[in-house]
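Our consortium's second objective concerns turning raw sequence data into structural hypotheses that experimental partners can test. To show how far this objective has progressed, the report includes one record in full. It was chosen at random from the queue rather than selected for favorable results. The single chain below, 557 residues long, was entered without modification.
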Amino acid sequence: MNFLETFLDEAKDILTEWEEAIQGLASGFEEARIDQLFRAAHSLKGSSKSVSLDVFGSFVHTAEDLLTLVKQDPSIWNAELAAVFEELHEFLSYWRNALDEDAAFVPEQIESWRNRLATFAAASSPVETSSEEQQASFGFFEEEPSPVPSPAALQAKPVAATPAPKETKSTPPNSLNRSIRVPLDLIDRLARSLGEMTVTSEILKSAKNNHSLDSVVAQQAIDELARLTRESSMLGQSFKLSPIGELFSRMEKITYDTARKLDKQVQVRLIGAEIEIDKLILEKLKDPLMHIVRNAVDHGVETTTERTQVSKPSVATIRISAEVLGMEVVVRVRDDGKGLDTDKIRRKALGLGMIEEQDSLSDKSIHQFILSAGFSTADKVSEVSGRGVGMDVVKNAIESLGGKIEIDSEKGKGSRFSVHIPTNTSIVESLIVEDEGHVFALPLESVSDVFVLAEENAQEFEGGTAAILRGEECIPITPLGRTLAYDNSLDKSKTGVTVPCRGGLKGVVFEKIVREQTIFIRQIEGKLQQREDFLGSAILENGLPALVLNLSRLVER
């Protein structure tokens, strides 16, 4: 699928969100719906510009300007403006459908629409707004509003009727029309497996009718059916996977486009583009990652002159990488720019009352403040960053995927933003383990090795943490009960697994391994859903439930 096709699919979903927000605003102003409408406009603008549909993106930017004013002053919103955004939805849907046939299409009504939106914006704009007030409103990512004409009238200008889109069907809210492309060989393999399952089930049906389910043929058929079921499930899961390189290619283009607009020189390095993750996660990761890479160019990377003055290469390097750690994919954006200004962030946090003067915080803790809502240290607004969409929105978007974001930065040397997201694989091979009467499932993808703990290969250190000694290698280990807070003893912990993590391997020990089993991970409801320790739950072959552990998170505690 090329970039334009990807945009058209995304635009269809975004416009559905737009329509849902407008329907929710039919009964009057609602802040959550305005935010939803603003996010839809912002995403539509960013997606279109990432595929070089600059006219489309600039037009949506005008609508985004108007929504920014509404967010600043809700009294602007009225029935007339609501009707404008409802008509605008129809116009953008028409434009999007026309792009499906002609990628260079620009509607003739665009100037009339620009004038109409600009008139509303001019009539609604405050007489003056200080730079500091703008920064407080717009957040960490900032963008200069589009210029609007002086208000000539308070009444909106009429716009020419929008042609009806070809074969457009209304899409009800919350029913996003998603589609994926699947390689033909995968479909063929699934069709063969399903065909073999049909034959095998007929063999078992015959054995049941003949009262011979305990025969050799029937037992072989049962084993074959189990194999085919597992194979078909894995094939079905693979339909949803896509190389992250598709997303990386878009980020590379956005990085170069942003650098060109800011007259900065950068080179992009892509690492791990072959890693596959769920297509839905890829789609939802696009916006947060786009903001991070734009921010790296805008706020992180210095100009050529500035880099030369501090003896850095004139061309900055931005690395976008991905690696698999257990059941997680870690996507990192790293620049060799000026890094975060820790003192400036601390002063801003003090000014906002987020900390007290006497508070002693590490640099890493201070850097986390940029993920807070409304937090900005920018001295001026910028044209390229996501105005009104701060790092708190990026953080929330990543957490909605069950992930987290980490920041590492050193002044003068650069910053690294690490996004941890689950691979979202529902069917996995697992070790079923028992400890103190509790049964858990450990995904094998997270396990590097299995070991037996004995006195000669364990050693206690100050603080109670033991370690396996393998020749010259020392691997820290922790009892599973200690990490989950139900037991603190090493006495019964004689079996364990090593888990890859940042900085090497760490071990978790427990009583015993019961068996290996293929499990289907189900989402946890209720309070446990907020625990990073658990990937979900599973039903074991004996019919009992078990929690599925997120080992990579456990060992980092």
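The partners drew two points from this record. Residues 127-177 have pLDDT under 50 and may be disordered. Residues 242 and 276 are 5 Å apart (CA to CA). Both points have been shared with the crystallography group to help prioritize constructs.
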